[in-house]
Amino acid sequence: MTQTLFTETHTVLTPVSQEDRRALGALPRTAQEHDAALAATPCMTQVRVGGTAAHNFLAFPLTVAAWNLERCLFPEDSAAMLAREGASLVLLSEMDNGMARTAQRDTTGVIAAQLGMSFAYGVEFLELSLGGAIEKARATDPENVLGHHGNAVLATVPLERPVLIRLDRDDRWFRFDPAGEQDRIGGRVAIAARVQTEAGPILAVSTHLESNALEDFRAGQMTALLDAIDTLAGDMPVILGGDMNTGNKMPDADWRTETLFGLAQDRGYEIHGGEAEAFTTRPSLITTAPPRRMKLDWFFIRGMDVAGSRIVPALRDDGTPLSDHELMICEIRGPYRT
After folding, report:
1. CA distance 226 to 232
2. Which end of the chain has fewer surrounding CB within 10 Å, N or C?
């Protein structure tokens, strides 16, 4: 698979039968087998679209949310938090669809319906197992109906020209998961779509960079992503947000050692991640052990006048964590005037 941009849209992605998923799980764990399976699985190169837009264009000031929802155990509560923050453009990652650990629910569709939004969704990984021990304990069925896990863009306006951007065809999760807890095919992706604002179109991009790698690998993913955005956006303003996994697998989890920030800044992006020394991770119902406190989640903004960004604790009213990542919010005054 050499192509990286995919524009084929469906309201339902081509399913992979449970029999075929079991066959994929039985393949020899080689790069060649992974690449062949990835190329032969249509849902990995399709964009799912749905929802209903409430408006024709986004007004300024604009509230944007980016959130890694860690499978999305609680879509209704997550949607309620997004509504309280007033987000009209939402960039989500780690969204399940047809996974037993999240009751086989279409988590993106549930959030979009509750918020009155349209959505575009792409599969990052086709999951071949139920997940780890905690996820198996949460499973409502012995198998996944679909096994989809991916990223989404949601907005209160129509999403134009949605695109799935495959950032790599790396096989590390297929080859190096001896415990079978995250047995999967695929690789990291971004979902992009053009949205209309009162000042003209912008490109919205939701991404999730690799956690199981060092900074040089993520820098390569960022370069591929910025190249793709240049192709799609031209000189349009860009709102890119998501879990960049900055500092993951690095000494002391130091996000400041990542070179991807400089790569983006060299192309005209401003970096926004809330309070400078505030972290964006927390213990959750899945990530129960206290993790190293990390700053993984960011907005990269080009051509927009940013009023500020903040980190919102990802907690339900009763204190239940909604994710192992906090909710990220960015407030935008409007486009830069030249």
Report:
1. 10
2. C
Q: What is the mean pLDDT of residues 20-44?
A: 95
Tell which residue, 60, 113, 56, 107, has the closest CA to residue 86: 60
Q: Are strands 160-166 and 5-6 parallel, antiparallel or unpaired?
A: antiparallel
Q: Based on the number of CB atoms within 10 Å of its own CB, is 236 exposed (0-12), middle (13-18) or buried (19 or more)?
A: middle
pLDDT digits (tens, 9 = 90+) for 74-123: 999 999 999 999 999 999 999 999 999 999 999 999 999 999 999 999 99
CB–CB of 215/250 below 8 Å?
A: yes
Task: Show Cβ contacts of residue 270 under 8 Å, excluding neighbours closer than 6 positions.
Answer: 300, 301, 302, 306
Closest alpha carbon to 229 in 273, 263, 186? 263
Q: Where are the beta strands (DSSP E) in 139-234?
A: 148-155, 160-166, 184-186, 189-197, 200-208
Contact 296, 247 (CB under 8 A): yes
Say how far apart CA 66 and CA 304 lie, in whole Å.
16
State both tokens at 188: 């990291």
Confidence grade of residue 252 (pLDDT, cut at 50, 70, 90): confident
CA atoms within 13 A on the CB side of 93: 30
- Number of Cβ within a 10 Å radius of residue 277: 6
Query: Please, which residues have CB within 8 angstroms of residue 232's CB and are 6 or more apart in sequence?
Result: 5, 161, 163, 192, 194, 203
Q: What is the pLDDT of residue 251?
A: 86
Helix (H, G, I), strand (E, B) or coil at 195: strand
Domains of the chain, first to last: 5-335 (3.60.10.10)
